[in-house]
Amino acid sequence: MNSPRYGISTLLCTVVLAACSSPTTPTSEEVGSPPTTAPTSLVRVDLADPGVATALGSPPFEPVAWQRFVGPWTAVGDGNLPVPNEVAIMQAAASDLPPPLLAITPRAIVRTSSVDVPADHPATGAVAVSKGPDIYLLDGVFGLDGATRFEVLRAMSHELVHVAQWFALSPAYAGAALEGRLAALDLDDGSELVADWAAATGWTDRDADPFATSWEGDGTSPTPYGATSPAEDMAESVSLAATGRHADLDDTRRAWIEEWLGADVEALAAEQPWIPPGSVEVISPTPLYDRDVVEPLVGDRRHVDQLAFELSPAYDDLDVAATAISTGLGAHGFEGALAGSGMLRTGTYQRTDSSTLHVELRDLRTEGADGLLLTFVLIW
How far apart are CA 156 and CA 152, in angstroms? Predict the structure, then answer.
């Protein structure tokens, strides 16, 4: 996704091996030495085995102070009690995930304030992290003012991809890790799923070592963070597809995701916003919508979540942009259109889960700003 106007933490994946016999990555000559016994690398490793996950650096989270169900998964936490509002948001976000992503089975969704990563690793500032088969939702995803359903959906869809990548570690790579022949386990180095994505989307490995990679992209990743590696490119791209931002995907990424998940991107984003390509997210602590219009829609519901974007200069005509957004929302299952006069176009849509999606498209150029502001308000 494009960088928000006022900044947002990055979603990261980190998987670190707990114990190794060698502090350095083996050379290709060492890896290729003839084995004297049947090597682990020739056997499909059961990554669902808790003992294997522990040996690969991902022991079960502890201490567990509470346990709840979130969607089809188990959520655990280390606080005295789960925060009811946070559990409700996690459950709501899980219900928004497309079925193919719900079919990915993390061992646990972990709600905690911190996770062990190397001191200099950028995950120290992350909002969500995957470690092996687990997803960690950290304080950053919930924010000082509480999470929105949009934000948790974005984090969970991204990290579920990393879990799928972990379960697709190649037998040779996982075997080498279990034998202590790797200093660290990296999805970019060892996941067959990542390798397939990389081959399809223009990534080139410049490292001849079979157990190490030096990826170079071709500049087509849809987000700056996705451009850092194919594992992150895949996670970012799938998350865009699941959250209504698939217009920012090129045809190759779109086709790969549709084949992998067995559904077109419009179906994956059913009842999610449709966001025009090139839009820049705007983070604001104050409402960017007409409160007098939204307040009567709330009723006895407890949550009002805001998601806002400044449209790219390509959308310089208010009515043309409103038509494009209405068409995109229609492809996501919403019936209706944005309508209005002057500098504002609005529409209100009911979702099948009884929540309401209110949409406002506002021309801010009369107020001295650069262009059009698109705001989605989810009331649930």
Answer: 6
Average pLDDT, the chain: 87
Sign of the C-alpha dihedral computed for residues 47, 50, 51 and 56 taken in this order? positive
> Which one-letter amino acid corresponds to residue 238?
V
Q: Which residue has the higher pLDDT, 156 or 27?
A: 156
Tokens matching residue 54? 């522990």
Q: How far is CA 166 from CA 15, 32, 130, 259, in A?
A: 9, 24, 9, 19
The type of residue at 374 is L
Q: Strand, coil or helix: what is 236?
A: helix
pLDDT (tens digit per residue) in 225-284 = 999 999 999 999 999 999 999 999 999 999 999 999 999 999 999 999 999 999 999 999
Nearest-angstrom CA–CA distance, 93 and 77 = 17
The CA distance from 248 to 222, in Å, is 6
Q: Which residues contact 69 (CB under 8 A, 6 or more apart)?
A: 75
CA separation (Å) from 102 to 91, 156, 164, 334?
12, 10, 11, 22
**Please, what sign has the CA dihedral across residues 158, 243, 75, 9?**
positive
Q: Taking 80 as the threshold, does the pLDDT of residue 75 lie above it?
A: yes
- Segment 300-325 shows an average pLDDT of 96
d(CA 192, CA 167): 9
Distance of CA 127 to the CA centre of its chain: 11
What pLDDT, on the 0 to 100 scale, is given for residue 43? Answer: 58
**DSSP state, residue 32:** T
Strands (E), the chain: 12-13, 66-70, 73-77, 108-111, 128-131, 134-137, 204-205, 215-216, 280-282, 304-310, 344-350, 356-363, 372-379
Strand intervals (E) in 128-227: 128-131, 134-137, 204-205, 215-216
